[in-house]
């Protein structure tokens, strides 16, 4: 697979074209960003850890019947993926209250949410990823009702698979964000799954093991990511 020109440079990953019009290369960089890119730092090993973490999780999800963009690991920092037409809507499931939900509704962090919540955000840094509802998705043509229904179904399926996986590793899956795209007419899970886009707490101590360590300046960010990877058995 030949790497060609850069198609897109995001906050933490770059996307390259390849000699196959249906395949892209994702490059995971060490750049770590929060607050819609207002706080950015380089963290050693982060690109490698997230690339391998993502490959591990995507393969688990694929094995559970969830269609993903992931094809293969190419190097420490790169993987090969299917080219999707991305839908600019972020799907967030919360099993416990944290982050923007706590700020928005004034509830206590760590409250268990039964059943889990499902929320939509528009992917738009300039607007700070605003909270939206499904009528906005249809009115602006970001996805059809059938596509959004499938995204919701797959997001809850991911929650079931990953709750079990993280629970076995002594971790609570507090919340996470997924992005989807369309490939050959089918809704497919895209982007990445890593500690950058979810919240993971140690079950016994509730220690934060995800990007909140960076957002909140708690230190030992990559050390925590590596501990999560090691507990799951991700080969680094
Ligand atoms: P929030 O509490 O900031 O709304 O985020 C909920 C979860 O989704 C949290 O694990 C972080 C993740 N997330 C992202 O990774 N990127 C985003 O742009 C958004 C809105 C959420
Ligand atoms: N990843 C987003 C950003 O860099 C949101 C966040 O994680 O805070 O701003």
UniProtKB/TrEMBL annotation:
Query: What metabolic or biological pathway is this protein involved in?
Result: Purine metabolism; IMP biosynthesis via de novo pathway; 5-amino-1-(5-phospho-D-ribosyl)imidazole-4-carboxamide from 5-amino-1-(5-phospho-D-ribosyl)imidazole-4-carboxylate: step 1/2
Example of a GO biological process term: 'de novo' IMP biosynthetic process
MF GO annotations: ATP binding; phosphoribosylaminoimidazolesuccinocarboxamide synthase activity
Where in the numbering of this chain does the SAICAR synthetase/ADE2 N-terminal domain appear?
7-231
Q: Which UniProt keywords apply?
A: ATP-binding, Ligase, Nucleotide-binding, Purine biosynthesis
Catalytic activity of the protein:
5-amino-1-(5-phospho-D-ribosyl)imidazole-4-carboxylate + L-aspartate + ATP = (2S)-2-[5-amino-1-(5-phospho-beta-D-ribosyl)imidazole-4-carboxamido]succinate + ADP + phosphate + 2 H(+)
Database matches in InterPro entries: SAICAR_synt/ADE2_N (IPR028923), SAICAR_synt_PurC (IPR033934), SAICAR_synth (IPR001636), SAICAR_synthetase (IPR050089), SAICAR_synthetase_CS (IPR018236)
* The enzyme's E.C. designation: 6.3.2.6
Pfam families (alphabetical) = SAICAR_synt
Checking PROSITE patterns in the record gives: SAICAR_SYNTHETASE_1 (PS01057), SAICAR_SYNTHETASE_2 (PS01058)
UniProt-listed HAMAP family: SAICAR_synth (MF_00137)
* Protein name (database record): Phosphoribosylaminoimidazole-succinocarboxamide synthase
């Amino acid at each position: 697979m030949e790497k060609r020109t850069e198609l897109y440079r995001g906050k933490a990953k770059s996307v390259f074209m390849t000699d196959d019009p249906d395949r892209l290369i994702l490059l995971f960089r060490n750049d770590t960003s929060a607050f819609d890119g207002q706080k950015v730092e380089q963290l050693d090993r982060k690109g490698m850890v997230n690339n391998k973490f993502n490959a591990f999780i995507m393969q688990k999800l694929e094995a559970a019947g969830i269609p993903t963009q992931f094809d293969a690991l190419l190097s420490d920092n790169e993987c090969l993926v299917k080219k999707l037409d991305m839908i600019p809507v972020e799907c967030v499931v919360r099993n416990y209250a944290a982050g923007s939900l706590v700020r928005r509704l004034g509830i206590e962090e760590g409250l268990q949410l039964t059943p889990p919540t499902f929320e939509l955000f528009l992917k738009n840094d300039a607007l700070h990823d605003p909270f939206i509802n499904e009528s906005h998705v249809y009115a602006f043509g970001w996805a059809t009702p059938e596509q959004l229904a499938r995204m919701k179904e797959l997001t809850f399926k991911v929650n079931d698979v990953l709750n079990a996986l993280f629970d076995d590793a002594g971790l609570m899956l507090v919340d996470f964000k997924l992005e989807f795209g369309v490939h050959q007419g089918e809704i497919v899970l895209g982007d990445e799954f890593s500690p950058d886009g979810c919240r993971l707490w140690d079950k016994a101590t509730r220690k934060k093991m995800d990007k909140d360590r960076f957002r909140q300046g708690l230190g030992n960010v990559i050390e925590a990511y590596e501990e999560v990877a090691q507990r799951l058995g991700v080969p680094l």
